[in-house]
Amino acid sequence: MTRKNAAVEGDPDCTEVLEDDSRSIILDIIAQLRKGKDLHRVALPTFVLEPRSMLERITDFMSHPDLIQAANAYTDPLDRFIGVVQYFLSGWHIKPKGVKKPYNPVLGEFFRCQWNYDNGTKAIYIAEQVSHHPPMSAYYYASPDNGLVIQGNLRPKPKFLGNSAATIMDGTSHITLTRWNNETYHVTMPNVYARGILFGKMVMELGDSCTVRCPTNGYICELDFKTKGFFTGSYNAVIGKIKHEPTGKVLREISGTWSNEMFISKPKTSQKTSLFDVKSSKILPPLIQPESQQELNESRRLWSKVTLGIKQNDMDLATDAKLAVEERQRADTRQREDRGLVFEPRFFALDEKDGEYKIKLQGDTLEHLETFVFPLSHDTSKSPDEVLPDIPSSTIVSA
Fold it and tell me: What gap in Å lies between CA 312 and CA 304, rounded to an integer?
């Protein structure tokens, strides 16, 4: 199965032209669907997969720590709010070429990593698939010495929409600046669309509205990710307004493209300043344990054969490995049901008050966090039916 990248004006990495053999597979899948149908039970072909789990994909939004650290240093609440908005918008440009989606995590799968910052501080991240029906991922990122916590739940809902496939990004992320009396920002996500799956060029777009809200200071940013019209518009456009929510007063306006450069300005003025420029930005990747030291249900080890097949362009290997992972999940589910057991997440627990999964962590220091996420002893042995390869390495490696 083959595919070609094709340039799209404004962003050459968001489009893909499928060869006839690849497109015919998609058409075979679509023939079984009806408009608006949930896609969770449909096995997508491996050539449309990005070779990493959604649990790892979430870390893209932690790739520009300088922005959130700068925001945390501002004494003016509006400046902090603008900094948090800038930080949120900075993560969307990180993506593979073409139209790809990350692996759907299986129940109990988890991903963990850390960052070492230039100022001598650290951040640690843990994410876990806490529910299968409906699919839900819980995640927690903290850098105690920098006064920062990010946690949330993600509930993607894929749907078929005729010539498009959509992923409705339900869920909320909470960014807490602990130095400012736990000042918290509640963030929702835009939706993701794959256009042109029946005819035309396949294009990935972000669409619809989302918000960044800080109830403590009364600020809200209303963002609108624009999809390109058939005859008008451009790819990857985003516009927004920062308001004082109690009065409705507009304080700042945002414009530009999330894949290139975004600008901010005061209302009723033509003078704009750069809010975030992809070209001059620097990505700080996480540090991840080698697969030989990972547990069986850690993302990179769990999906390693699928990833190997995709990277070697061996779609038979990738497809067989993907089916093996999915069948293993079904077997685990049957075993729990036969024994009358209920799945309990390892790192997160459901908070009945707000219906969100929260970290089970006891204590708020870096030492507490490291011990919780990276215990000194854990089982990395292979089970008798182990089918996943062990890629040897001896040190934590960069993504």
Answer: 12
What does the alpha-carbon distance between residue 311 and residue 297 come to, in Å, rounded to a whole number? 21
Asked if 260 and 90 touch (Cβ cutoff 8 Å), the reply is no
Helix axis angle for 315-339 and 304-311, nearest 10°, is: 160
CA distances to 110, 125, 244 from 139, rounded to whole Å, are 9, 7, 29
130-173 residue pLDDT tens: 998 889 999 999 999 999 999 999 999 888 777 777 888 999 99
Q: What share of the chain is helix, strand, coil (3-state, %, to 5)?
A: 25, 35, 40
Q: How far apart are CA 216 and CA 33, in angstroms?
A: 45
- The SS3 of residue 180 is helix
* C-alpha angle 90-92-95 in degrees, rounded to nearest 5: 125
How many alpha carbons lie under 13 Å from residue 98 in its C-beta half-sphere? 16
CB 1 within 8 A of CB 18: no
pTM: 0.85
Q: Tokens representing 155?
A: 């509930």
Provide φ and ψ at 387, rounded to 5°: -120, 5
CA angle (232 as vertex; 193, 255 as ends), nearest 5: 70
Coil, strand, or helix at residue 164? strand
Q: What is the pLDDT of residues 42-75, one digit of tens each?
A: 555 666 788 999 999 999 999 999 999 999 999 9
In whole angstroms, give the CA distance from residue 383 to residue 311: 26
What's the chain's length in residues? 399
- What is the per-residue pLDDT across 64-119, written as a single tens digit (0 to 9) for each? 999 999 999 999 999 999 999 999 999 999 887 777 889 999 999 999 999 999 99
Asked if 262 and 253 count as a contact pair (C-beta separation under 8 A), the reply is no
Residue 135, C-beta contacts closer than 8 angstroms, at least 6 positions apart: 40, 104, 105, 129, 155, 156
Cα 40 to Cα 60: distance, rounded to the nearest angstrom: 23
Between strands 237-244 and 219-226, the pairing is antiparallel
Identify whether 65 is preceded by a cis peptide bond (ω within 30 of 0): no
User: Which pair of tokens denotes residue 180?
Assistant: 């400012």
**Residue 252 structure tokens:** 């700042």
